[in-house]
Known about the structure:
Layout: H1 2-15, H2 18-21, H3 40-45, H4 49-55, H5 64-72, E1 81-83, H6 104-122, H7 124-127, E2 129-132, E3 145-146, H8 151-154, H9 167-174, H10 181-199, H11 205-210, H12 216-225, H13 231-259
Antiparallel strand pairs: 1-2, 2-3
Amino acid sequence: MHRSVVLLVLLLEVIAPVTALQQLPAPRRASVLPLPHASPSSRAATTSRRALIAALPVPFLVGPRTAYAAVTGGGFEKEQFVSRGGGPPALGEVPKLTKGEPSDRELQRLALGYKRLKYLLANWEAETTVCIRGCKGKYENCGCTRDPLVVQAYMGYKSMNDPLFRAGDLMLRASSRIESDEDFEVYNTAMERWNNKADSGNVMAYVSRRAPTCSHLCCVRWGEANPGGGQDEIARYLEKSRKEVVESAEILKTIIDCLGIKVD
């Protein structure tokens, strides 16, 4: 009797329409692969891999960068935003870092870094305003917003090719070039101040503590979503960031003067 029931179920699976099959407990094997002589209607009842993929939400089907853009709002990736000022200027070839006492050539990294900080301060509003890359429309139509995170590129915290990358180590190796005790005291104090900034997490530590996964768009939303935040909060961070850059430039100029480095 049991065998007859099984045969009957198999027979119904072959000849019955899909609607009827959905009301019967189909054999486990049939849920994975259709029977060799199954009708088109029964094959349609079997879920294909293509159908499963088609049913997935869009973020699962695209690359991680595009998926990131889809879930963070605006449909844009971080790399699709660019500073209105164009970013740090190219001031010539950056000398490579070495070991031991640095040469005059290597010390030019500090001069290049100082010139870039001065450029940032002179073009502060443009450099700290980011917009959709390639957009030629009005400010409000290009997703533009103020963003202090660009400062990291000028301070040497984003790339090994930045002139101020590992600037503290370069300053330490150059300390043997200081001749008088008086100059060394000034130099050592300035070097400690510079390193303390790096040890505290860099000049943008206060931003990363508040929004560790901040993107250009969600930075604004994060500020506007907090009580007392919004544009006033963003402006406060920008001004704090600007003061940090001013102080960093002053420290760097002291180091440069002590080492006798020429700045064009």
